[in-house]
Amino acid sequence: MERLKDKVAVITGAGSGIGRAAAVLMSREGARVVADRSSDGAEETAGLVEAAGGRALPLTVDVTEEDSVAGMVAAAVTEFGALHVLCNHVGGTDPRKDLDLLRMDMDEFDRAVALNMRSTLLGARHAVPHMIRAGGGSVINTASVAALVGDVLQTSYGAVKAAVVSMTKSIAVQYGPQRVRCNAVAPGAVVTPALENNLPEEVVTSLKKGNALPYLGSPEDIGHTMVFLASDESRYLTGQLLVVDGGMSMQSSAAPGRRAMLPR
Ligand SMILES: NC(=O)c1ccc[n+]([C@@H]2O[C@H](COP(=O)([O-])OP(=O)(O)OC[C@H]3O[C@@H](n4cnc5c(N)ncnc54)[C@H](O)[C@@H]3O)[C@@H](O)[C@H]2O)c1
Questions:
Q1: Fewer Cβ atoms within 10 Å of its own Cβ: the N or the C terminal residue of the chain?
Q2: Among positive and negative, which fits the CA dihedral 234, 61, 36, 244?
């Protein structure tokens, strides 16, 4: 399988969770670059990529700092000679501080803007010129189903992920003529360290009930979608949001209760 043959991919947040899964899956298809804030995480992911027969460059980056992002992209191009794919994957908020409107920690709001929006913009801003030089490319932004619905908490998270969806469309429109595609993935509940460390067991159980499918997602479920978006199989797809959520966001809120009433 060489769906990403000869492509160079930078994946931020590849030191754990979904980003790591995407890096390993992409490595089965071509060369890649791994970047992450924690150098241990990046080194570990690079080890997994190489064990799977791929090539990886572990880098330490802070995606909220423009110089750091510029350095990451430059290092990728120096090492592999080009850049075709960028996964702007780092994001999230601290659910203990990202609360409702009245109790919102405003420092956390600013951090959310930097970690999700600013990082997405910076990554694309530095990667797109190399993609144009390479004759085209694919920017893949990580949004969330939180961008699509209102919630009682995590006000910032929903808002910044909705902004990621908006930026995705603008980038797609602006650089489509140069064959640079830009799409976003909206994961639903995915079992990663971020989910396991931040959410109490009862919330995880309620998330499962909210899905049409009887299970939560794995990092690989999202990684496979990213491989598709990185590959030329999706060459006619741009400016879109692919919702990969086990049916969570399309299911009627009445469905779990009605399902419980169905004859077994
Ligand atoms: N896990 C889920 O259920 C879920 C659902 C929807 C969306 N998402 C989104 O997926 C993305 C990652 O989620 P995950 O569950 O894989 O998270 P994760 O915590 O497992 O991984 C995040 C990675 O980002 C790195 N990172 C954090 N801050 C950084 C910075 N400033 N610079 C560079 N690297 C940094 C961390 O070191 C870590 O390796 C986020 O954008 C998140 O909003 C996750």
A1: C
A2: negative
Beta bridge pairs of residue 180: 137
Residue 264 lies in a domain: no
Centre of ligand 1 to C-alpha 174, Å, is 27
Residue 70 corresponds to which tokens in the numbers above?
A: 């510029």
Helix (H, G, I), strand (E, B) or coil at 215: coil
78 C-alpha to ligand 1 centroid (Å): 26
Q: Quote the domain boundaries for residue 184.
A: 8-243
- Between the CA of 11 and the centroid of ligand 1 the distance, in Å, is 11
- Pocket residues for ligand 1 (CB within 6 Å)? 12-13, 15-19, 36-38, 41, 61-64, 89-92, 115, 142, 144, 187, 189-190, 192-195
In a domain? residue 257: no
pTM of the shown model? 0.96
Q: Is there a domain that residue 95 lies in?
A: yes
Reading the chain (264 residues) residue by residue, the pLDDT tens digits are 699 999 999 999 999 999 999 999 999 888 577 878 888 899 999 999 988 888 899 999 999 999 999 999 999 999 999 999 999 999 999 999 999 999 999 999 999 999 999 999 999 999 999 999 999 999 999 999 999 999 999 999 999 999 999 999 999 999 999 999 999 999 999 998 777 777 788 888 888 889 999 999 999 999 999 999 999 999 999 999 999 999 999 999 899 889 889 997
130 belongs to a structural domain: yes
Number of domains making up the chain: 1
CATH of the domain at 120: 3.40.50.720
